[in-house]
């Protein structure tokens, strides 16, 4: 869905001249070999892992955004969101925000 949804939104943006903000995640880095990663880090991704559909979906959607920007001049911004917390997440999931909440 990440690819198809992004593709459809990019087509609409091209047609109406809109800008796109694509919300990506740290999953595009896969299981990184270095911490912290900078924007030039090329990732360590397992394309057949248990979460690979999500990881690769985000990666291909980012790539598609950049291709549309280069080919069609659409204004694109990509935000890679790290350590987000939502109301349905478990407090003991080991992420930074949830760890701060349970301290």
What is the annotated CATH architecture? Answer: 3-Layer(aba) Sandwich
Strand order of the largest sheet: 1-2
Q: Which consecutive residue ranges, at least 5 long each, have pLDDT under 50?
A: none
How can the largest sheet be summarized? 2 strands, parallel
As for the CATH topology, it is Rossmann fold
CATH level 1 class label: Alpha Beta
What does this structure look like?
This protein has 103 residues and is α+β, with helices and mostly antiparallel strands. It has one domain: Rossmann fold (3-Layer(aba) Sandwich). Helices cover 42% and strands 12% of the residues. The model has no long low-confidence stretch (mean pLDDT 84).
Topology (SSEs and partners):
Layout: H1 2-16, E1 20-25, H2 52-72, E2 76-81, H3 96-102
Parallel strand pairs: 1-2
Helix pairs in contact: 1-2
Brief synopsis:
With 103 residues, the chain is α+β, with helices and mostly antiparallel strands.
Keywords summarizing the entry:
alpha+beta, Rossmann fold, 3 helices
């Amino acid at each position: 869905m990440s690819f198809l949804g992004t593709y459809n939104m990019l087509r609409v943006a091209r047609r109406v001249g809109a800008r796109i903000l694509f919300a990506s995640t740290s999953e595009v880095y896969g299981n990184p070999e270095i911490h912290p990663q900078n924007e030039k880090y090329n990732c360590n991704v397992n394309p057949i892992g248990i979460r690979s559909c999500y990881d690769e979906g985000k990666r291909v959607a980012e790539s598609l955004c950049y291709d549309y920007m280069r080919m069609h001049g659409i204004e694109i911004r990509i935000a890679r969101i790290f350590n987000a917390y939502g109301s349905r997440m478990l407090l003991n999931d080991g992420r930074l925000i949830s760890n701060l909440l349970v301290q």
